[in-house]
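User: My collaborator sent over this chain with a note saying "see what the structure looks like." That's all I know about it. Can you take a look?
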Amino acid sequence: MIEINLLPKEYRRRATPLHFNKKWLYAGAAVCLVFVLLAGMTFYKQQMIRNMDKKIVAAQKERMSLQKDIKLIDNLTNLKQNLLTRLSAIEKLDMDRGMWVAIMEDLSSRVPELLWLTNVSEEDLRQKAAEQRKANNPRNLGQAVQDTVEFQMPSRRPAVIEGYAYTLNSIASFLVGVMKSEYFDDIELAYARQENVEDLDAYNFKINCVVDYDAWLKEEYQPEVSVSSPLADQ
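Assistant: Without extra context I'll predict from the sequence alone. Here is the result:
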């Protein structure tokens, strides 16, 4: 079937051709590009947040592990300090054992009647040095214990002798005897106070002195001199 349009040209309906404006085309492309960029940045930020969350979780786990290690190290440090202190005490006892056996034998031979001793001890110079180091540097506790072990004890050490006597003459006699001992020096009577002991009047006394370890070492390591008989050589 053939259709013929007999209307004049000015009345005929014209088909509007599709025209694209370049400005609108560029604007749409720019909007799409911005949308793509925003979407990419959003995705990138989300990935960064996920990675940061993973790092935070790993850091928290590592912190918990380090706290356990730090606690273990603290316990081991305390154990080491206790062992060093005990070793120092054992070393001191072993080193001074022979000396104090000789001192007590010497003192017992000089104790007169009506007098008895309650304490014979020397000042702990190792502990005093450690406390001084700790006071100067309170944060370094391990070093204070190490100083206690490595401290070189002098040959002359302060000591005290304490006891009771029923008479002042006994104290005076004991003082004279101690002054004659080669193990003690710088002897002085700190006090002699009268007290009641088991319903009896007695004098509590304290003597400050210095223990001379060199005297014991000279006696301990003095070479024995053998005297040979002329008859034995024949």
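A starting point for your reply to your collaborator: The first helix runs from residue 22 to 108.
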